[in-house]
Design brief:
The strands form four sheets. A seven-stranded mixed sheet has the order 6-5-14-15-16-13-17. 35% of the residues lie in helices and 29% in strands. It is built from 13 helices and 19 strands. One of its GO terms (biological process) is quinolinate biosynthetic process.
Length: 374
């Protein structure tokens, strides 16, 4: 079967591997240039915590070893109180049950390599989808190029162009819910070539209404992410205000951030959104169009499950294809059963923001440590 996947991100690449294993011919259309030929986006590196759900999806294709080779296991949370006191909270009594820190760009490159190496998979870069006719499967790209396929899968992320077309059709419901919070990346570099904090933990500075987290990188730096209300992010508009705020609220991290002001002023603010869509597929005329990953169910990052869930989508769609004898319209219909699970994870992710920024800090208090929320 000829299948078109729009978006060669994490989920599109993994799905291409799954479909190629079944003998399908897959063309992946990606709007960006080949990421293997350019550097990372500054301030948008995004470290992911890959957990069992995602590892399972990789393992089924024998990709887990290669991917986890570049990952750093984090066996628990390291809580940073405002007075600098540290408390480690293991995720499990079994220390081997860690979540794994990996850069999104590195993971994307690995999966792109894996997809490109499959016979029957072609990746086309610089192809931004701008139009789709769901009845014929005809696709139009910004470049003027056109293509057609009987099966079109949108793996083009939270702001999916494929989903945007489906949203225009009667019977397709869609909602988006933005938080009043943004995120911004900062960095804690290595000191004398070594980690300056414990690399075996996900670091959290819970501060009541807001928080900062940090995940380790293989180059012995940490990528920090602020999750702050938009008004707080905007209020720090001078180098003096930035330094004073961090010295007051994040004193232990402040001393480890030589590039704080440049990072703060140079790095963009990202938005946090939950998107829901139903159904995830439309069959009209000769073609069928479906959605996977963030295109189907974008969630806020506080449960660390967006990519993990997208990977699990690939496993579930593969299972549906088994059940449907590789009849895509039928398989995509079966795949709708997954929505109940992704709705739950979307809710858990929102709830976990309160847990991470506030309640984990309260436990420090219960443990007898002094806690002052900012
Ligand atoms: P994307 O990764 O967004 O990929 C979509 C691809 O489609 C991109 O390559 C894009 O260029 C391409 N594309 C878009 N539009 C078009 C178009 N019109 N035409 C052609 N191509 C197009 N998840 C976790 O599991 N664990 C974590 O710890 C975690 N932390 C996160 C932290 C932050 C700050 C954020 C923002 C997200 C985090 N996530 C995490 C979520 C994770 O990044 C996403 O769930 C995941 O990237 C979704 O993969 P995807 O392939 O569906 O979409």
């Amino acid at each position: 079967m000829e299948v078109t996947i729009v978006g060669a991100g994490l989920v599109g690449c993994l799905l291409a591997c799954y479909l190629a294993r079944r003998g399908h011919h897959v063309t992946l259309y990606e709007r960006r240039p080949d990421p293997r030929e350019r550097g990372p986006d500054r301030g948008r590196s995004i470290n992911l915590a890959i957990s069992q759900r995602g590892i399972d999806a990789l393992r089924r294709l024998g990709l887990d070893g290669k991917v986890l080779h570049a990952a750093l296991p984090m066996a628990g949370r390291m809580m940073h109180a405002p007075d600098g006191a540290l408390t480690f909270q293991p995720y499990s009594a079994d220390r081997s049950q860690a979540i794994n820190s990996i850069g999104r760009a590195d993971l994307n490159r690995e999966l792109l390599e894996a997809a490109s190496a499959q016979p029957g998979v072609e990746v086309r870069f610089g192809c931004r989808l701008t139009g789709l006719d769901e009845r014929t499967g005809r696709l139009r790209f910004e470049s003027g190029e056109e293509a057609a396929a009987g099966v079109v899968i949108g793996a083009d992320g939270a702001h999916s162009a494929v989903r945007a077309r489906l949203q225009q059709l009667p019977g397709v419901s869609f909602s988006q819910e933005y938080l009043d919070y943004g995120y911004k990346e900062l960095s804690i570099p290595a000191g004398n070539g070594e980690f300056v904090m414990d690399p075996g933990a996900l670091h959290i500075w819970p501060r009541g209404r807001s928080m900062m987290i940090a995940l380790p990188n293989p180059d012995r730096s940490f990528t920090c992410t602020l999750f702050w209300p938009h008004d707080t992010l905007a209020a720090l508009d001078t180098p003096q205000r930035i330094r004073a705020y961090f010295a007051e609220h994040y004193p232990d991290a402040f001393g480890l951030m030589p590039d704080l002001v440049a990072d703060y002023r140079g790095n963009p603010v990202g938005h946090l959104v939950t998107m829901r869509c139903s159904p995830w597929h439309v069959r009209a005329g000769d073609a069928v169009v479906g959605l996977v990953g963030d295109a189907a169910h974008a969630i806020v990052p506080f449960y660390g499950q967006g990519a993990n869930c997208g990977f699990e989508d690939c496993v579930e769609l593969d299972r549906c294809l088994d059940e449907a004898g590789d009849d895509f319209p039928r398989a995509l219909e079966l795949f709708e059963r997954r929505k109940a699970d992704t709705d739950v994870i979307a809710r858990l992710a929102l709830d976990n923001f309160v847990e991470m920024r506030d309640k984990v800090g309260s436990r420090l208090f219960l443990a007898g440590k002094r806690v002052e929320h900012a």
